Amino acid sequence: DTGVSQDPRHKITKRGQNVTFRCDPISEHNRLYWYRQTLGQGPEFLTYFQNEAQLEKSRLLSDRFSAERPKGSFSTLEIQRTEQGDSAMYLCASSLRRVLGTDTQYFGPGTRLTVL
Amino acid sequence: GEDVEQSLFLSVREGDSSVINCTYTDSSSTYLYWYKQEPGAGLQLLTYIFSNMDMKQDQRLTVLLNKKDKHLSLRIADTQTGDSAIYFCAESEIKAAGNKLTFGGGTRVLVKP
């Protein structure tokens, strides 16, 4: 198992362009989370999926953001009409939901977005 | 809502112990985590503790939890230069529908030779 992977690792775009990021979770994990981390801050929750169902979205996720997990495996996060304030590291994490106990989240390396 | 606070910076000499502190506000049953982040990288899970425990030890790492004061600490014994990184405390309220993490702002640890 190679862990959580994210692609691309870096993305530079011009304001107003659309961007899409991909996350491949650990293979048997049924939960997938997206977080955003701005410089000097801790990560902030954006949204999460259990299998293919998107079960919770943060207020941070404006209508320019959309996330999908069509087959319950990989996920994509799209940002439309990017703004300079969208510049951040976008982190994906996956976990295995158990009946009891925590579902420990394992993070990918992140995609760093720079909006010019 | 949940809030997690950490001190910003810690400097320590190689071989000494490091203690990183964190306070949280959620009073419900929860898991508390420590993650490590090196420059330009994602988060590496170090350890976690459930809120009904007082202490957990894992090799060089010791986690202490004071539930009354909602204070969590991470002690790293025999700190090495490779321990230089940003350390994040996070809490997760146990819910049936997802255990999203609420992170502190991170403590930057600098290990001096």
* Contiguous uncertain segments of 5+ residues of chain A: none
Number of E-type strands of chain A: 11
Task: State the oligomer.
Answer: heterodimer
Beta-strand fraction estimate of chain B? over 45%
Ranges of chain B where pLDDT stays below 50 over 5 or more residues in a row are none
Helical percentage of chain B: under 10%
User: What pair of chains forms the biggest interface?
Assistant: A-B, 28 and 26 residues
| H/E series of chain A | EEEEEEEEEEE
Number of distinct helices of chain B: 0
Biggest sheet overview of chain A: 7 strands, mixed
Classify the secondary structure makeup of chain A into a structural class.
Answer: mainly beta
Sheet having the most strands of chain B: 6 strands, mixed
Gyration radius from CA atoms of chain B, angstroms: 14 Å
Percent strand of chain A equals over 45%
Secondary structure class of chain B reads: mainly beta
Structure characterization notes:
- The complex is a heterodimer of chains A (116) and B (113).
- In chain A, 0% of the residues lie in helices and 48% in strands.
- Chain A has no helices and 11 strands.
- In chain A, strands 2, 4, 5, 6, 9, 10 and 11 form a 7-stranded mixed sheet that branches.
- Chain A is globular and about 45 Å long.
- The mean pLDDT of chain A is 92.
- The model of chain B has no long low-confidence stretch (mean pLDDT 90).
- In chain B, the strands form 2 sheets. In chain B, strands 2, 4, 5, 9, 10 and 11 form a 6-stranded mixed sheet that branches. Chain B has a 5-stranded antiparallel sheet with strand order 1-3-8-7-6, with no helix packed on it.
- With 113 residues, chain B is mostly beta strands.
- The N and C termini of chain B lie far apart (41 Å).
- At the A-B interface, β4, β5, β9 and β10 of A face β4, β5, β9 and β10 of B.
